[in-house]
Amino acid sequence: MVYIIFLCLTIPMLLMLPLLENRSRCIVGFMLLGTVTALSAYEINTIAFPLSGLDSRSFSEKIPPMVEELLKALPVLCYALLLDDSRGRVLPIAMAVGVGFAVLENTVLLVEYLDGVTLAWAVARGFSASLMHGLCTVNIGTGICYVKKQKKLFYTGTFGLLSIAITMHALFNLLIQSSYDLIGMIMPLVLYALLYILQRGKRLKLPFLSY
User: In which element (H, E) is residue 152 found?
Assistant: First the structure.
């Protein structure tokens, strides 16, 4: 079923690519890569779950954050290291990878639990888990633009960026499955608002946001 959903989502997007301009083609292309990482993560998590010996809750808090953030980071790191490390280019494609991942993941969950999903579930999912996927990848995209230029910090800096993304993801999974689920749902929105303020401040060249 996952492969059927993957093909239904990606084939129309793939056919649209030749008709788009360069920047739009790049964004849609990285959304497609995001769906590929989601499919890859699904397969790896499916294999790892019975081997881990963990229950479903403990597994979701420990293994998927590592697997998913490492896979999502690969396209962003390759783009920034090999093609273009400007923040204006890297951040949108980083968000596109995370959104593409979330689109496939949400669709699979919708089909698997069709009888139990509601409009409220869709809204909550869109503003929490989906947004978190994008923000974790944006964190890596934002940092790599700086770390790439710092040769002494490159390897430790890249490891640190991955660690932050994995920790954010694991913390979200931990909160959303606990009695503090509301905090987990609000956390991505707060982080997104901070990102927007920082981006807005840089466009306006506010001195306290410059670095």
Answer: none
